[in-house]
Design goal:
- InterPro entries: P-loop_NTPase.
- With about 190 residues, the chain is an alpha/beta fold.
- Helix content is about 55%, strand content about 10%.
- It is built from 10 helices and 5 strands.
- It has a 5-stranded parallel beta sheet with strand order 2-3-1-4-5, sandwiched between helices.
- Helix 2 packs across helix 5.
- The longest helix is centred in the C-terminal third of the chain and has 20 residues, at about 140-160.
- The radius of gyration is 16 Å and the shape is globular.
- The model is unreliable at about 60-70 (pLDDT under 50).
């Protein structure tokens, strides 16, 4: 395999996690998604739910700065970022794998054996999908999608100083709503 590592960044509801798992399964390699959160929890002592949320909140926003002060040292989010950075680099050194989310594309940006993918889809496809897959109903699915994407973009910008979803950060961007989940996986596999 020419590309040992595949990173999958994705819009919420686009099927990026599912695509990553399919790619890993078809290539016979590991997929790190929930497993990465479990590793972070084990090494940091933080609860997995906290890690999931902290990975989408931007430290240093108005409210965050009102309640935390970096002059006293790094925040929990900063500590998690450093740990996440180290774990992702270690996983990439250890074995071929797929890594979903967690700014892995940025963390591994200098590796020549890394294929960086961004999965997106239009609002209707994603809204229909989160209702069907996750039973999302607490508020309008579109509002939930916008909120999650906004948080992911802010987190990505804060820690990478790059724009989340910008095509120049990835080798390939796939519209899963047009191409389909299975076909996206096949295309990624063919490039790996």
């Amino acid at each position: 395999m020419e590309k040992r590592i595949i990173t999958i960044s994705r819009e919420f509801g686009s099927g990026g996690r599912t695509i990553g798992k399919l790619v890993a399964e078809h290539l016979g390699i590991r997929c790190y998604d929930a497993e990465l959160i479990q590793k972070l929890a084990a090494e940091s002592g933080f609860d997995e739910n906290y890690i999931k949320e902290a990975g989408e909140y931007t430290p240093g926003g108005f409210l965050a700065s009102a309640f935390t002060n970096r002059s006293f040292g790094p925040t929990n989010e900063d500590l998690l970022w450093k740990l996440q950075y180290r774990i992702i680099r270690e996983l990439a050194e250890k074995e071929p794998c797929v890594i979903v989310g967690r700014c892995a594309d940025f963390i591994l940006q200098n590796r020549t054996d890394c294929l960086k993918v961004f999965v997106h889809a239009d609002m209707k496809f994603r809204a229909d999908r989160i209702v069907r897959i996750y039973g999302e109903r607490e508020k309008s699915p579109e509002a939930r999608l916008k909120e999650k994407d906004k948080r992911r973009a802010a987190y990505y910008r804060f820690y990478t100083d790059m724009k989340w979803g910008d095509a120049s950060n990835y080798h390939i961007a796939l519209d899963s709503g047009v191409i389909g989940i299975e076909k996206c996986a096949e295309l990624i596999e063919s490039l790996a």
